[in-house]
Amino acid sequence: MSNHLTDSDFPTAPRYDEAGVGSSKGGAANLAPASDTKTAQQPIIKVQPLKKAEMQPSYAQDLGVDDIEHNFYGSMMNFLGSVAGAMGQFPCCICCPNPFQEVDQGTVGLVTRFGRLYKSVDPGLVRINPFSERLRVVDVKITLIAIPRQTVLTSDNLTVDVDSTLCYHVSNPLRAAFSISNVKNALSERAQTTLRDVIGSRTLQSILTDREAVAQQVAQLVESVSESWGVTVESLLLKDISLSAEVQESLASAATQRRIGDSKVIAARAEVEAAKLMREAADQLSTEAAIQIRQLEALQAMAKTAGSKVIFVPMSLAHQFPQTGVANLGSGSGDKGKGVQGSSGAQPVLNFSEVNTFSQLAG
C-alpha cells in the first residue's frame, strides 16, 4: 500500500488555481466565479501610457567651453572644484560640496561657467563644478498671471473696470533668463497698456458683445512683443467688466425707454388693425336690413327688464307697430306721460306697459 495520496482519493476536494479561486471537480460549489476574479483584477481607471510627443521637449544643448578664456585663477578654481566635487560624491565627506543637483520635470537647467552660459540640460541629475559653475533653473510650464484691476475709458466716454488674466509659457529659456530681468512684471505691464489701448478704441456696446475679439486682439499685440523675450502668450481672459453706478442707471433707463417705445409701436399697429376691422364691419352693417336687425335686437334687450318704459322709436319703425301701442302727438299739445313734443313736430312714442306685447312685436 502506497503512502502517497492523489487527487482521486479526494473527489470533492476543491482545487485552487494560480489566482486562488476554488474549483470543485465533483460538482461542488465554487468559492468564487472566474468572472468576478477578472473584474476584481481589472483596474477601475485605465491609465493611458505617456507618449513621447506629449512629454516636455528637449532643450539640451552644449555650446562648448573652448571659447571661454581661463587665466591662472580660473584654471586653479576649476581644478579645485573638480577635486572637491569628486570628494563630495561620497556621503561621508560632509566638508566638500555635492557636485550633483536636480532639475525637476517642467523646468530647464542653464549651466554657466564663470558667469557665461555654455550648456542647457533637461530634467534629471546634473553634475556641475561647485567652484566654477552655477545652475539656473527656468520654468517652462504654462503660467497664469493676474493683471491688476484697472479703470479704462471707452471711445464713447464711459468708464469700465476690467479684470483679466494672462496665460503664457517660456519657449526660449535662454532669452527668458538672460534677455529680460523679470518676465512676469514685463508681461503684466505690457498687457495693461495694450488692454487700455484696445478698450479705449471701442465703444461700450462693442466691448460687452465682443469680449472674445477684444481678448484675442490684446493677446496678439502682447505676443508680438514677448517673442523677443522668449515667451509665447497662450491666451488672455477677460474675467470681469464692471460698470459704474451712473453708467448702469443710464443703460437701464435706455433699455426701459426702448421697451416703452416698442410697446407703443405694437399698440399703434394693433389700433390700425382694429380700425381696419371696424371699417369692414361698418361696411357690412351699413345696409338697411342690417340696421333694422340691430334696432330690433336693442328693443328686445330693453324689454327683458321689469317695469314700464318709454322708448323713442325711429320713424322708419313706426309703421311696424299697431296703433294701440303708439300715440301720435299733435304739433301743439300732448300728454307728458305718452310723448314729448319736438320742434320738428310730433314723434311717435311707444309705451310698453305689457312686456309680453313688446316681446311679440320685437320678435
From TrEMBL:
Pfam families: Band_7. CDD domains: SPFH_alloslipin. Residues 98-255 form the Band domain. One of its GO terms (cellular component) is side of membrane. Residues 1-42 are annotated as: Disordered. Belongs to the band 7/mec-2 family. This is Band 7 domain-containing protein.
